[in-house]
Amino acid sequence: MTTASILNLLAWVVSAVIAAWLIHDVVRVSRNHDEKDLINAAEMFDDLDPQAAAPAAPSTKEDGR
Amino acid sequence: MTTAGESGAPTVATQTPGHHAPALRKVLSPMHIWALGVGIVLVGEFMGWNFSVEKGGMYGALVAAWFVGLLYTCIVMINSEVTSAIPAAGGQYAQAKHTVGPLMAFNVGLYLTLAYTMLEAANANVLSYLLSQLSSLTGSSEELSPYAFATLAIMALAWLNYRGVFAALSLNFVITGFAFVTIIVLFFGVSGWNPAVSLHLDGLIGSLDNGLPYGWIGVIAAFQFGMWFYLGIEGTAQAAEECRSASRSVPIGSMAGIMTLIIAAGLTWYVCAGLLPWHYLGVSITPLFDAARVSGSGVLVLLLLLGTLFATIASANGCINDASRAWFSMSRDRYLPAWFSAVHPRYHTPFRSVVFLVPIAIAFALLPVLLNQPTLLATVITFSILSGLLTYSFMGPNFIRFRKLWPMGTITRGYVLPLHPAPAIALLLLSGIVFFATFLGYGTALLSLLAFYLLASIWFVRRRYRYVKRGAQFTADLPRPRGY
After folding, report:
1. Contact: B345, A50; criterion CB under 8 Å
2. How far is CA B367 from CA B1, B122, B211, B361, B370, in A?
3. Residues in B touching A34 (Cβ below 8 Å)
4. pLDDT digits (tens, 9 = 90+) for B206-223
5. Any domain includes A34
6. Which of the residues A49, A59, B181, B222 could staple to B52 if both were Cys, CB 3.0 to 4.6 A apart?
7. Total domains, chain B
8. Torsion angle, CA of B20/B479/B93/B442, rounded to 10 degrees?
9. CA-based diameter of chain B, in Å?
10. ipTM of the predicted structure?
11. Are B111 and B85 in contact (CB under 8 A)?
């Protein structure tokens, strides 16, 4: 095995370890915490009733003022 | 795992009274803002700017550096005032949602995310090329795989950004500072203060035609690559929400940043003009490194190679930070699914946004290699530049509107832009000229990108606009104009 191929393999292994750690941590945090403790927004979830959100619908004037 | 659904039963959940949403941590100082802004940009001094020499000659590149430098000085000054009043992650996106409206804000947010993600991909691609060069310099005949190292660079920097903004930007400060110092060392190493010693500027002094081989149209064509000297400095606004004092840190860090870049641009042009023939300089991949090689000093060669490497890493690192903040900000205002607006309970970073953008950056970084199409890298970079230009063309009119909505004396500003409205109008005019210059070189790419943003806007209006609450997204501590 050449030096270059060892370095290439090492780069792939380290990348895979980091990817696994990131995915594991994202899943772990999502499981251990309620979504409302994670989401940074004034309101928790999307309002799923389009009618209720009607005032925000686009008008012909961009800013509505 | 509880996720925010896009359809199904109407389960509206709002924050309960007394509940404090997790927030990004306020830990940054002017030093970090400087590191973010200059870190993203400085790689342009080490590679990229020199293509302006091919278009317009040595003087064409110099005029482009000044002209585009003026454009970016306007951007930094405008950014400093608006960001000191609206210190929110998302930068120009947050400005747009307060001053114009959701559709403009969505477009600006998308410009920012794409500009930084594509620049990050290009940096990772270039980094793998530099490592191959380093390998060959050490005498090795074996080739390192560009796939492995481009992927590793993105993964490692994403991990760093995931773990915390303070460490990520502290690293940027160190490596960006080192890269900047290598440019100064090169200037002193070739006795730049005394051109007669090792610089060859006689041709440029002798005749104007030597410096302007294609006349003034060449100068206009050079503008698109003159942007490389400063492209990305506007990204300082993205970190405003994480500053201990945004009204102080953003203006100081950004102003110091543009001054650093103007000095670096001047030194870079001067040293390269004196050491490299313009025909070669115009097509060189790593001009400063090549200038060091011409100097014949082994120390300078090593320093400039490290400088180029560090500048590339700093740029990719800053791009991950900025792209994730733009994506996160759009998400928390419901422009995108709320799932992305999560903040890590321990590291206080927008961790899902950081991770989500990783495969996209890797795809753009590896595509030119996988398809064996090196020109695709130029296309990726062009898309990044054009997205940046679209942001700049918004910033001038946006600032005029900002001053109209909140006139002087009505709100507290950490920095006041002098000579208003001259800088805003200048920015609009200069952006128009650079757009024209870019159209000359990349007309098809420009039209393709505009078509993409048009389609994205249609998607937003049809699918996401209904979720946007105008009142809830007005988050700045400013008097609300009528309509909110």
Report:
1. no
2. 33, 10, 37, 10, 5
3. 2
4. 676 778 888 888 899 899
5. yes
6. B222
7. 1
8. 180
9. 78
10. 0.85
11. no
